[in-house]
């Protein structure tokens, strides 16, 4: 027969082993959760980097266009009314339709809903 001291020590060691095991499980679970969260943050950071690289490429392309001769010529023509030799600048008045005698198509008042249904069916 076992002595009460052995049973107590055996029971105490079993409880101690279970508590240590539970502690290890909790610790490993926390570490795994942190690792998964870090992986998600890494994916988000990679997406942000790709987005910023694309934005940088777009800005570089815009910068190249704005420094080109074509843009300078376009701005000189549109905003400064400059021309090349042999060309003529034509400036149209803002009220061109009135000058030509055309009436603007003003929107008419919409029909009430019951009238629209009446017109549809009859």
Could you characterize what this model shows?
This protein has 122 residues and is mostly helical. The protein is built from four helices and no strands. The chain has helices at residues 4-66, 69-80, 96-100, 113-121. The radius of gyration is 40 Å and the shape is elongated. The N and C termini lie far apart (107 Å).
Task: Provide a count of the helices.
Answer: 4
Helicity, in percent?
Answer: over 70%
Low-confidence stretches: none
Q: Oligomer, anyone?
A: single chain
Number of strands: 0
Strand content: under 5%
Distance between the termini: 107 Å
| Shape field | elongated
Average pLDDT taken over every residue: 86
Rg calc: 40 Å
What series of H and E elements makes up the topology? HHHH
Biggest sheet architecture: none
Structural class: mainly alpha
Features:
122 residues, mainly alpha, 4 helices, 0% strand
Write the layout of secondary structure elements.
Blueprint (H helix, E strand, L loop, with lengths): L3 H63 L2 H12 L15 H5 L12 H9 L1
Compose a concise summary of this entry.
It is built from 4 helices and no strands.
């Amino acid at each position: 027969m076992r002595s009460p001291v052995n049973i107590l020590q055996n029971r105490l060691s079993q409880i101690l082993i279970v508590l240590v095991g539970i502690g290890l499980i909790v610790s490993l679970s926390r570490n795994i959760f942190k690792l998964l969260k870090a992986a998600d943050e890494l994916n988000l950071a990679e997406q942000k980097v790709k987005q910023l690289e694309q934005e940088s490429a777009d800005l570089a392309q815009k910068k190249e266009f704005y420094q080109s001769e074509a843009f300078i010529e376009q701005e000189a023509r549109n905003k400064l009314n400059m021309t090349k030799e042999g060309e003529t600048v034509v400036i149209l008045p803002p009220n061109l339709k009135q000058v030509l005698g055309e009436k603007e198509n003003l929107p008419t008042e919409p029909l009430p809903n019951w009238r629209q249904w009446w017109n549809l069916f009859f």
